Amino acid sequence: MLDWALFIVAIFICIALFLNLWRLMVGPKLSDRILALDTMYINTIALLMLYGIHMGTSLYFEAALLIAMLGFVSTAALCKYLLRGDIIE
Amino acid sequence: MSFLVETIISILLVFGGIFLLVGSIGLARLPDIYTRLHAPTKASTLGISGVLIASMIYHSVHTGTFSVNELLITLFLLITAPVAANMIAKTALHQDTKAIERTKGQELMETIKERRAPTLSEEQTDTTQENKQV
C-alpha cells in the first residue's frame, strides 16, 4: 500500500511541478515568476522526501533542509532587490 | 512494519500530495498576483507538512529510534512562508501590478504603497485618513 501511495503522490507532485513551470514561463510580471519559483522549491522538497521514503534512507533530509533554507533566502533576496534596488544596504 | 503504521503513513502522504496539487493548480489558474499568492502560501504549506510528518513517522518506525529531524523543516517552512508571501506582495505593489476589477478597496493601493510608517508628516497623515474614508 505504501508503494502505491508513494507512486500516486509522486505523480501529483510532478503535475504540480509542471504547473509551476508553466507559471514560471508565462507569468505576466516578475513577482509571479518569483512566486512560482518559491512554490517549486516546496514541491522539490516533497519529491525529495518521497524519494527518501522509497529508498528507506534519511540521507536526503539534509538536502531538503538546504533547499528549504536557500529557497527562502533567495526569495527574500530577489524581492529585496526589486523593492530597494539593493540586497544589503 | 505493521499494517496500521503503513495506513497512517499512506493517508498522510496522499493528504499532503492532494494539498500540494491544489496549491499549484491555484497558482496556475487564479486571475491576478494578489489572489495567486493565497494558493501556494496556504495550501502548499499544509501539504508539505503532511508529507514531512509522514516521512518522520516512517523513519522513526524504520530505524527504531524517535527522529524529529523533519519537524525542523516543517517549522522552518511554516515560519518563512508568510514572510516570503508578504515580500512578494510588497514587490507586486511596488511594480504597480493591477488587481482584477472585483477587488475591493483598490483606491487604497496607492496609499499603502507610499506609506512610510511610523514617521508621517501631518500632510501625509491627512491624505491617508481621507483615502481611508473614501
TrEMBL record, chain A:
<keyword id="KW-1133">Transmembrane helix</keyword>
<keyword id="KW-0813">Transport</keyword>
<keyword id="KW-0812">Transmembrane</keyword>
<feature type="transmembrane region" description="Helical">
    <location>
        <begin position="59"/>
        <end position="83"/>
    </location>
</feature>
<feature type="transmembrane region" description="Helical">
    <location>
        <begin position="6"/>
        <end position="22"/>
    </location>
</feature>
<protein>
    <submittedName>
        <fullName>Multisubunit potassium/proton antiporter PhaF subunit</fullName>
    </submittedName>
</protein>
<dbReference type="InterPro" id="IPR007208">
    <property type="entry name" value="MrpF/PhaF-like"/>
</dbReference>
<keyword id="KW-0406">Ion transport</keyword>
<dbReference type="GO" id="GO:0015385">
    <property type="term" value="F:sodium:proton antiporter activity"/>
</dbReference>
<keyword id="KW-1003">Cell membrane</keyword>
<feature type="transmembrane region" description="Helical">
    <location>
        <begin position="34"/>
        <end position="53"/>
    </location>
</feature>
<comment type="similarity">
    <text>Belongs to the CPA3 antiporters (TC 2.A.63) subunit F family.</text>
</comment>
<dbReference type="GO" id="GO:0005886">
    <property type="term" value="C:plasma membrane"/>
</dbReference>
<dbReference type="Pfam" id="PF04066">
    <property type="entry name" value="MrpF_PhaF"/>
</dbReference>
<keyword id="KW-0472">Membrane</keyword>
<keyword id="KW-0050">Antiport</keyword>
UniProtKB/TrEMBL annotation, chain B:
<keyword id="KW-0812">Transmembrane</keyword>
<keyword id="KW-0472">Membrane</keyword>
<keyword id="KW-1133">Transmembrane helix</keyword>
<feature type="transmembrane region" description="Helical">
    <location>
        <begin position="39"/>
        <end position="59"/>
    </location>
</feature>
<feature type="transmembrane region" description="Helical">
    <location>
        <begin position="6"/>
        <end position="27"/>
    </location>
</feature>
<feature type="region of interest" description="Disordered">
    <location>
        <begin position="114"/>
        <end position="134"/>
    </location>
</feature>
<feature type="transmembrane region" description="Helical">
    <location>
        <begin position="71"/>
        <end position="89"/>
    </location>
</feature>
<protein>
    <submittedName>
        <fullName>Multisubunit potassium/proton antiporter PhaG subunit</fullName>
    </submittedName>
</protein>
<dbReference type="GO" id="GO:0015385">
    <property type="term" value="F:sodium:proton antiporter activity"/>
</dbReference>
<dbReference type="InterPro" id="IPR005133">
    <property type="entry name" value="PhaG_MnhG_YufB"/>
</dbReference>
<dbReference type="Pfam" id="PF03334">
    <property type="entry name" value="PhaG_MnhG_YufB"/>
</dbReference>
